[in-house]
């Protein structure tokens, strides 16, 4: 009996390339999400803010973007959701809104299924604006006035905010921007503006077009200053002239027997309702004779020069005169041997209507004098001290050229005038 013996051998097993190695499990392919930016902080914006979120699939498997929910005052077009993104693909979504909010993005990322992005945007507001000077109810003198205002904005630097000053009477005044300190300036020159009541509006406009306006109501008195007068409007006689080097009026040099007068003839002012301020210098010599402020009656005048010497150049001129006398003249009935201020009408130097003693005016210094006439009351202050403030009967009802006179005799002084301001009360005084 024959037996067939078959040899048995092992067969090699060929593995599938996709199968994991023996003893290892197959690695699962997972989706993953990346959202950028991780926060939206827009600061101040013109109207609603806007930004773009990018949702990107960064895993090994396709990512499903299931939903996008927005909190706060924010919105977006989510009509494309749900959305499948292959690895490497992204989806951009535009957001708009203002205030504080949050974007909540839900996906099938097993690690981070919910991504929250904080949102922040502040809608621009109109500039903050305050007029500092002038204030409502102010009466402006004949000198220039510095209009000032404070400006602030939540978006722009102060100097980037557009400004416009306008008057209901004179129209556009100026548009200079504020400085980096937030203070805006406009120099109001009454010589270029109408007298009387004004409502002035200051408007501020930022780069978003947001505007703020504020108003101030004031009154501009009529008048002028020496600085805004053409020299051709001055009438000089005798030794008086304009010292162009020093920019003041010299009525007399430091010499004997001099007489000078200087009157501004561009316009007249009512002699019964005016305030006049100026600076004077009466020093440098042996001490004579003094100066006068004279409101010259333009309807009765025959010239601009009165008697010299103790007449101080105003004697016999029609109108009223207020003299600062620095030399005693007994023949003119001077009320004191000391320096004094006195009031006279129609050039009557020997007829003192009111007077007050003064400290030494020949002290080598400039002195400031303010004369306020609201007829019949006359107020005179020198260097801030009031020496006269009382009714003084006399003729005030005439149109006047405002000017100055001075004279020397045997004794001498420089007689100088500077910083003249003349104001006619049209605002009620």
List keywords for this structure.
Jelly Rolls, 0% helix, 30 strands, rod-shaped, 7-stranded mixed sheet, disordered N terminus, Immunoglobulin-like, 429 residues, 8-stranded antiparallel sheet, mainly beta
The helix-strand sequence is EEEEEEEEEEEEEEEEEEEEEEEEEEEEEE
Low-confidence stretches: 1-15
Shape: rod-shaped
Residues in β-strands, percent? over 45%
**How many strands, which pairing sense, and closed or not: the largest β-sheet?**
8 strands, antiparallel
N-to-C CA distance = 156 Å
Number of helices: 0
Helical fraction equals under 10%
CATH architecture of the largest domain: Sandwich
Look up the CATH topology of the largest domain.
Answer: Jelly Rolls
Under CATH at level 1, the class of the largest domain stands as Mainly Beta
SS-derived structural category: mainly beta
**Cα-atom Rg, whole angstroms?**
44 Å
The pLDDT mean sits at: 91
List how many beta strands DSSP finds. 30
The tally of structural domains comes to 3
Short description:
This protein is mainly beta and about 425 residues long. About 0% of the residues lie in helices and about 50% in strands. The chain is built from no helices and 30 strands.
